[in-house]
From TrEMBL:
One Pfam family cited in the UniProt record for this chain: FixH
Keywords on record: Membrane, Transmembrane, Transmembrane helix
Residue stretches spanning the membrane: 12-34
Source organism: Rhizobium binae
Protein name: Nitrogen fixation protein FixH
InterPro entries per record: FixH, FixH_proteobacterial
Keyword field contains Transmembrane helix: yes
Length: 161
């Protein structure tokens, strides 16, 4: 009986190379899937300026969140409502509310709405909101001073649209 002394052959090289590229392709497909199915970030005009302003904006958002003032958005057909209340649940005293609707990627469908006041802490407007994912930035002011500035991501399916 004779032992094989061939060692590393061309078949071994083919298998090693195929296994290497199979791993590379599998990792790329996995990363592409996660990239397309997860949060896609925001579109900004100048990324450098946005990165420089981030910490200041984050601190201001934390202070507003600590105040307990919060808003609730509802969309039914073309009717858009926004209610804002203080931490005790009472309507917050604000003069105006602006909603900036933005798509997570791209800006060709973005729009801004200034809502009309219908009662203390209650605002509404009419506008068609296309289906899919949106980021809504709500800015509430009293005497020109920002009382609440929040952004929420949602899918129109959450509102039954």
């Amino acid at each position: 009986m004779r032992a094989s002394t061939q060692g590393f052959t061309g078949w071994h090289m083919l298998l090693a190379t195929s296994a290497f590229f199979a791993v590379v392709i599998a990792v790329n497909v996995t990363m592409a899937f996660y990239a397309s199915s997860s949060w896609s970030g925001l579109v900004v005009e100048n990324t450098y300026v946005a990165s420089q302003e981030f910490n200041g904006k984050a601190a201001a958002m934390k202070a507003m969140a600590a105040s307990g003032v919060a808003g609730a958005l509802t969309i039914k057909g073309r009717e858009i409502r926004y209610e804002i209340h203080d931490k005790g649940g009472a309507p917050a005293i604000v003069d105006d509310v602006t909603l900036n609707f933005r798509r997570p990627v791209g800006d060709h469908e973005d729009f801004r709405l200034t809502l009309r006041k219908t009662g203390e802490g209650r605002f509404e407007a009419e506008h068609e909101v296309a289906g899919g994912d949106w980021i809504v930035e709500a800015v509430s002011r009293r005497n020109g001073v920002v009382v609440m500035h929040e952004a929420k991501r949602f899918d129109t399916a959450e509102f039954g649209q």
